[in-house]
Give the backbone structure.
Amino acid sequence: MTLDSNITIFKNFLKKYGNKRIAVVTHNKADVDALSSAFALSSVLPNSIICTDEDMKNGADALCERLKIKVHSLPDFEQFKDEFAGIIVTDTGAYTMCPATRDWKILCIVDHHQASGRDMKAEFEIFDDKSPSAAEIVANLIDPKQKDVCFALSVGIIADGARFKSARQQTFETLGRLMKIADAPYGELLSYAEPEPKPEAKAAILSCLSKSKSVYVNDYFVATSETISNESDAASALTEAADVAFVAKWNDEFQETRVGARARRMVSVPMNEVMSLAAKSTGGSGGGHPKAAGGAFKCHTQEALEKCIETFEKLSRTT
């Protein structure tokens, strides 16, 4: 959809639900892009609260502290669901990434991920899979003037754009406008976009790297490994050397394996398609972006990794 059509959709959403009681919800393990877009949307919904589930990532926690953002757990409001008109979901369109939303009425979705793996439906849907971040979409929907909102959205754009590898002209125009209002130096914004990992995260990533294995698949070096946490960060670290990386983590609560997938810029096989097909073959779901994706597999870690390589190998023959 075009920017103008998305703005029209959002205006219609505000006209109908702008003053209603709404929960602004984002995905589990919320990162700074998810948090900043939820915070900005909440700023134009006076009777809203911000919700997620599971602990947020390091940068999101720091941004909450910096801007005094209050985030609630959506399951805590299950018994009060009738008091809400519904929810607006940002930075995801997949129930796998936000299972607590399954019994809620979804009024609006704002998402920048590829359509594969998206199974949520809403009355108002705002999608732009060419946008490197949800924050960029939201910034252009609401045109914020508050310093704290512009600060948050700036951080979200910087964080989710892979150091601007996936940026477009509009990205730089939007970021420049936000930074001017936020009146914050780039170095400060970057410290929240790419925070120093906690010691336990570093330990998990280093352990994952030490256990990694690699195979050569149709001219690509593909690395795989397992971890107890930070699977996406570990996959990113592996692609400093490998062309493609799949890192698996078992989630005991949901009895599933979560896989983080990353690819270098020269890789032509879309990771979101790999994750979607591979996870679906186990009864799960996946998606994301061509170079950064993830999935929930209804099998254990080793089988999930084997499915990833098998699917990647098939797609690499035709891509």
